[in-house]
UniProtKB/TrEMBL annotation:
Residues 1-40 form the Putative regulatory protein FmdB zinc ribbon domain. This is FmdB family transcriptional regulator. InterPro entries: Regulatory_FmdB_Zinc_ribbon.
Length: 71
């Protein structure tokens, strides 16, 4: 299920986990004020053996590429 970002004039921004076919919220769950759905950048998480947790290559990989540049 996707997480949608909403904004209330009184309470500010909040996230709501909803199904794709669910209707957009029309009122704030805290103050019952009017809300608007905000389009935001999605959170991306790279998983698997082909990605690095720091988004940088390991020392072994960087040494081989610097050796290639020196040649």
């Amino acid at each position: 299920m996707p997480t949608y970002l909403y904004e209330c004039e009184k309470c500010g921004r909040f996230e709501k986990l909803q199904g794709i076919k669910d209707e957009a919220l029309k009122e704030c769950p805290d103050c019952s004020g009017e809300v608007k759905r905000i389009i935001g950048a999605p959170g991306i998480r790279f998983k698997g053996s082909g990605f690095y947790c720091t988004d940088h290559k390991t020392d072994k990989s960087s040494k081989s590429s610097s050796d290639e540049k020196a040649s």
